[in-house]
Amino acid sequence: MYETNYHRAGSIAEAAELMAKAEDGKLLGGGQTLLPTMKQRLAAPSDLVDVTKIGEMNGICEDGDGVAIGAATTHAEVAASDLVKQKIPGLASLAGGIGDPAVRHMGTLGGSIANNDPAADYPAALVALGAIVKTNKRDLAAEEFFSGMFETALDEDEIVMSVRFPGASASAYSKYPNPASRYAMAGVFVAKAGDGSVKVAVTGAGQDGVFRMPEMEAALASNFAPDAVAGIAPDADGLLSDIHGSAAYRANLVTVMAKRAVAAA
Amino acid sequence: MAVEGIGARALRKEDKRFITGKGKYTDDMVLPGMGFAAFVRSPHAHARVKGIDASAALAMPGVDAVLTGDQLVGDGIGNIICGWMIHSKDGSPMKMGAWRALEPETVRFVGQAVAVVVADTQAQARDAADAVEVDYEELPAVVDPLSALEPGAPQLHPEAEGNLIFDWEIGDEAATNAAFDNASHVTRMEISNNRLVPNPMEPRAALADYNDAEEHHTLYTTSQNPHVARLVLSAFYNIAPEHKLRVIAPDVGGGFGSKIYIYPEEMVCLWASKRVGRPVKWVSDRTEAFLTDAHGRDHRSEAELALDADNKILGFRVKTVANLGAYMSLFSSSVPTYLYATLLSGQYNIPAIHANVKTVYTNTTPVDAYRGAGRPEATYLVERMMETAAREVGLSPAEFRRKNFVRSFPHQTPVIMCYDAGDYDVTLDAAMKTADYDGFPARKAEAASRGKLRGIGLSCYIEACGIAPSAAVGSLGAGVGLWESAEVRVNPVGTVEVLTGSHSHGQGHETTFAQLISERFGLDTDAVSIVHGDTDKVQFGMGTYGSRSGAVGMSAIVKALDKVESKAKKIAAHLMEAAEGDIQIEGGELKVAGTDKKLTFTEVALAAYTAHNLPEGMEPGLKEGAFYDPTNFTFPAGTYVCEVEIDPETGKTEIINFVAADDFGKVINPMIVEGQVHGGLVQGIGQALLENAAYDETGQLLTASYMDYTMPRADDVPSFSLSTHETLCPGNPLGMKGCGEAGAIGSPPAVINAITDALGSNDLTMPASPEKVWALAQSGMKQAAE
Predict the structure, then answer these.
(1) Assembly ipTM
(2) Cβ separation of A244 and B769 shorter than 8 Å?
């Protein structure tokens, strides 16, 4: 690891100020990707600004028919939240399946979505549930927020404060993990809104990160059953292909995981 | 603790320090004034080194020196050796390319070191290593062993034309060909054995300290065999004469073979310490370990099995190409030859065997012995062939094996080995009973009703351990003898120190070896210390690998104990005015049979050292040493049964049940043996399902971290059902055979046989990744639908 300066911000304003002063600052939101990357000497930020101890960025509260979750809330807290389990069970179960217990107790919602790893779990939930990402500058719809592999709509000095998840009448996430990293090779979040509309979002498989499956959504809107999506697969052309799975295999996994998510919802 | 002898499930004496973080590993050693080494490594698989510019690095803070291969060669440091000479079938010796610890001219694999930086801190050394500018001229690379043998392939070493190291054979070719002429059925397969990365928990490390006043070197290092390291460093690498070089292998966190060898980094630290005048430490990071620890396996084979009309085996013909990587590592030549082809007879009567093995250079990390070393490759080949042949001729896999089992001993195979003892029916029957093999069809039907595919597979393995009879291996090309030494020192107060040439890096020697003394003298195991891993303390030893510490290392201790016992009895007889033959040792006391006269072991030990009243002419003291040279290999064997359930939609394979019935001969500590089997099975299952060292065409290692190299985890394996069945090894005093590698040797074919049974397709290579299994399951279902 290259040498770096660590700062613990007490407020969002202080975090923004520290970032502005830093030569090449990085926000630290749990560090489950950033720190291993730094240890491998693949990243060398001059300053790390830890935002996980900022009070207003922590915690989970009811928000209309859904929940609002502070960006510094850990995956373990989301997984264990009675409120989340009651309102959006698929989101709680997704959080409970991220990484391993150590990752879940350090990693945070904001850290995960700001990194936008194409194999991370949370982007699927945000997109399928139609979540709103609240930053220190503006509100961003999830589909606007995730703009490509490891890319988001965030400005350099923009800090994710919280995410608002609308409620769902049914929701579930099913993923097939990469055998080595246990990241998603294909993770499918299915959410049925109160009005009966359905969104299906896929992570782990797409070359540009999370994407929706409109054909599945239409099929499920008229028949919310696993069989409805059994014959629908994404075009393998836009999918990732690596030593763990070809694009064709991932396309199959998307279908299978969608079926299982619908069955579990 | 307690008196815990042979057969006791004694808790591990060493665990308190490991579990409480008090272990002392190489990286825990801190010396005053110590500097840190960081290596400059090639990013290319094959390139000419046109120049090295260290000026920027030398100007960086804390940097002492940047040393290169030219300086190393200039200082007379020797090339890295391969310690086992193999001759091709035409009589020519193996073709060894020069391997320098820092390469001055041509790098041949990604990660090969070309320079080393020594600086005040590890961070400074690494920053400076990044700043060393190396001018490379890239050359075409070859990573596939079959491609490397093709005309026009990139040439690695001038010494080895066409990248062929040797073209070796074993067995009677004419007799084998004749067996095929008379066959009523021939089973043919192409079988590959995937390349693995050993991944011990503790990465390699070295701390070298040169004392210029005494011209003496000390090396703390992660070694399975510190004396062999000292011998090689001294005799071949010209670091220092042996009496001026102390090698200490303190607590070592696993090896699996990868810490047998003397690598460039450890040797460079010794040389650099003298050059820069301060202790030099290097600790491998995990990526360096992936790139530079010797890899395992990587065979491509064609095999043919000839059967007669009664399904008895007539002959076995094998052609294997073994990828040795870019250089010949210490035992690399022996692994695909005498540790592999000599086991091709399996547990079976096979009248004629012929094997041809070609070894090749490729632009990949050097390959050497890894847990099992040759025997897993042989077992995988034999046991997949046996299962396949049984399916082809319509016999049950068990019945076909029983038809061909060796049942009389000693049994001379056509490939050197002479099996001394075993009972293969017993382990097969036990494993099948525990696995409820007969109930499998019902379980398969139940799984099918849930849309799942079930399969069951057998593996009846045999391996050769207890390496090895020195004269025999010498005649086959080994550069050293493979005996072991031990010294038993009884202190005046009756406590015992055992100095052994075996090295424990996870095996629990401090416990099992102490149990021998507990058994012999009735002493508490806490009254015994096992001393190992330091060339200044232990006179000499060959170290730990090939499951040899029990069968060879403990046999040496037994020989020394015999001498101690004999002397103690002489002293006791003298003191109690009895005949030596009447002295019995029981419960920590030496008694005169048939009387109430007795002395405690402590009293006898004290008498030996006070020397006030010893038999006439007897030297004082109670300390004896012994060297034990085995008379034969030992032959652990057993049967493994694996039952799997496959999800055809995803290709995920779940191991539902895994049964191991092993014959390890005499078992000293069943708990430790079970632990060895557990670990071995997990590594074997890892090879079968998960692990694979993958290179791209340019020679970049694609699996250089745990993000891509799939290590087995606890949730990948079931709770194992184990049993042991003892036939004593007649060749050593305790009847031990060895248990350290069996799990890794026997399990891969059981897993793959189970998966191919479930899929109804034999076209599967390791690792049986979800995608491969899914593709076969889909095509199987398509065929069934048509």
Answers:
(1) 0.95
(2) yes
